[in-house]
Amino acid sequence: MISSYLLTHLHQVLQRAEYGAVQQGRASHAANFAQLRKVLCMDARSMEDASATGMREAEIDKTYQPQIESKAA
Q1: pLDDT tens-digit series, residues 23-51
Q2: So where are the chain's domains?
């Protein structure tokens, strides 16, 4: 489990990188950073849900892998 402090830090780093990319006119980079932040938030929520229900990592992968693959396509 990743600490909430680390998740918050990563979110802020990606947010600053996205803002910097927008300021420099690099729209595709900004979009990539935004997508990474979105995935980070989704993963954090799924880890939170899993820890609340006591799911093991293998069970989590089976549950969320189809969702991740469909969004990646």
Answers
A1: 999 999 999 999 999 888 887 777 655 55
A2: 4-72
